Amino acid sequence: MTSMTVNERPVHFDMDPQTPLLWALRDAANLTGTKYGCGVGDCGACMVLVDGEALRSCLVTLGEAEGRFITTIEGLSADRSHPVQQALVAEQAIQCGFCTPGIAMAAAALIGRNPEPTEAEIMAAIPNLCRCGVYPRLVRAVQRAGRVARRRERISAAPAPGIDPADAARAVPALGGGSGTSADD
Ligand code: FES
Ligand code: FES
Asked: Which residue intervals are annotated with compositional bias (Low complexity) in the record (predicted)?
């Protein structure tokens, strides 16, 4: 049993401690916002926050995550109101969207420690691969997110999601108390 805090909830994974955190989050906890791209640490699609630091969850084992505070894209904000989420939408820095959760997590970590990053700092802190090539818009979005975080700018709220995340989770059996994970409310 490996215990950690995921999106502010205590979670216990009854899985091999060598299991990549990515698999536990996606397959056992049903947190499928974290994406599986390469599985070997190259693409960044799987980035989550571990004690506030953006890490590739395909390279972190459950054992290494023991006792840590994990934040996934589902936990970044309850209503897509995090400055990075607002700015990514406002700058249309999303095309297919597959890379977006990982980018959002890396950007959130960056803005948290440096809300006024240069383009070079952004490119260094967000090495994520994007097949659609949103990089120029990404730089604008992250700088805009920094301005929002510093209260120099406001962005209107993003449109409401088409489905309540709780409803989406209920539609998938993995969160129904089945094998692999449990959460204490
Ligand atoms: S899936 Fe983890 S870096 Fe690509
Ligand atoms: S938006 Fe398609 S991979 Fe980045």
From this structure: 156-171
